[in-house]
Amino acid sequence: MPFYEVSVVTRSLSKADLVKALTRAGNTLLDNGAVIEKVESLGHRDLPYKRLAKQTHEPVYASNFFLFKAHMSREARQKTKSILTHDLDTVQVDLIQVDTTPAPKIECNLEEILKSPAERQAVKDLRDNQKMGHFTRQMIYKRTEKEWKSIPKSYPIAPPRP
């Protein structure tokens, strides 16, 4: 069964009504075959934009945020989302599938990073494998040609005769 994060945003409710709404949400998940791993309260926050309550059509500016972490099938996900979305105490419900594959292990290369750039293997590889464009090659050729011409040339002196 895939792992989902179920975020539930409720209206601003009293503690007793909030407990009832969360119990309803949890029971809905359990009734549809979900295995709840964790429930987190993300607190009472302002909403990013005005929402309307379902039954009274009153504006909702702040609400309670909760996060259920649960394993459930894809069919249960669809059923649960439709039930929780139509609940009058919820403002918004989202179910997001979370990838549970372990992240690749990162190797620490602090000793390599602390070396001066001239001594690092990565910098040496960059210098060896660097690509130069036509203009850069031409500029290097002209500079070396100019340096070569600026060196004074002398005629070779013949060796002494025996």
UniProtKB/TrEMBL annotation:
Protein's organism = Caenorhabditis japonica
Enumerate the InterPro entries for this protein: Ribosomal_bS6, Ribosomal_bS6_sf, Transl_elong_EF1B/ribsomal_bS6
| GO terms classed as biological process | translation
Which SUPFAM superfamilies does this UniProt record tie to the protein? Answer: Ribosomal protein S6
One cellular component term (GO) for this entry is: mitochondrial small ribosomal subunit
State the name under which the record lists this protein.
Answer: Small ribosomal subunit protein bS6m
Q: Which family does it belong to?
A: Belongs to the bacterial ribosomal protein bS6 family.
The entry lists its GO molecular-function terms as: small ribosomal subunit rRNA binding; structural constituent of ribosome
